[in-house]
């Protein structure tokens, strides 16, 4: 369970990292699309941040993730320039590939190929009157 402090920091990091990757360091991606940041999780001491990136568009996901990991120091430095008035210490950034969108697309494809027969039609019950009180005893 994350504390309010962790949630605030994670939200701030998510917004500012997106801005850093899209505006400050677009040259890292060779003119391609900057990755989306799906989630940021911060440790209780605010010393580390796990950043989950959505790398669906723009080519090989593993190569792009490795490029981001190699440039983590430059990304952290650019992030520090943006949030230096807000936080005391810029957390260490650890990047991970978030493949939940690809998994959801795969599961959607699998479910669409299933042949599920429709449920049988039930006959309406004429004795079920919604305004009628349910019987609790035999004599009622």
TrEMBL record:
Compartment list: Cytoplasm
One GO BP: maturation of SSU-rRNA
Keyword Protein biosynthesis recorded: no
Compositionally skewed regions (Basic and acidic residues) per UniProt: 129-140
A GO CC term attached to the entry: cytosol
GO MF term (any one): ribosomal small subunit binding
Record keywords: Cytoplasm, Ribosome biogenesis
Region feature Disordered, mapped onto this chain: 115-140
Presence of the UniProt keyword Cytoplasm in the record: yes
Cross-referenced InterPro entries: KH_dom-like_a/b, RbfA, RbfA_dom_sf
One family name in Pfam for this protein: RBFA
Job description of the protein: One of several proteins that assist in the late maturation steps of the functional core of the 30S ribosomal subunit. Associates with free 30S ribosomal subunits (but not with 30S subunits that are part of 70S ribosomes or polysomes). Required for efficient processing of 16S rRNA. May interact with the 5'-terminal helix region of 16S rRNA.
Membership in a protein family: Belongs to the RbfA family.
Assembly notes: Monomer. Binds 30S ribosomal subunits, but not 50S ribosomal subunits or 70S ribosomes.
Annotated protein name in UniProt: Ribosome-binding factor A
Species the sequence originates in: Hymenobacter montanus
This protein's encoding gene: rbfA
């Amino acid at each position: 369970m994350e504390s309010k402090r962790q949630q605030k920091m994670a939200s701030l990091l998510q917004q500012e990292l997106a801005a850093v990757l899209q505006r400050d360091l677009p040259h890292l991606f060779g003119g391609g699309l900057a990755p989306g940041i799906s989630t940021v999780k911060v440790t209780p001491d605010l010393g580390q941040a796990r950043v989950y990136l959505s790398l669906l568009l723009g080519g090989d996901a593993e190569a792009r993730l490795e490029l981001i990991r190699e440039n983590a120091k430059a990304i952290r430095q650019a992030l520090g320039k943006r949030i230096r008035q807000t936080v005391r210490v810029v957390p260490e950034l650890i990047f991970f590939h978030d493949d939940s969108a690809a998994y959801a697309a795969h599961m959607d494809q699998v479910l669409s190929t299933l042949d599920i027969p429709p449920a049988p039609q039930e006959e309406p019950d004429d004795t079920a009157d919604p305004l009628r009180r349910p019987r609790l005893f035999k004599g009622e």
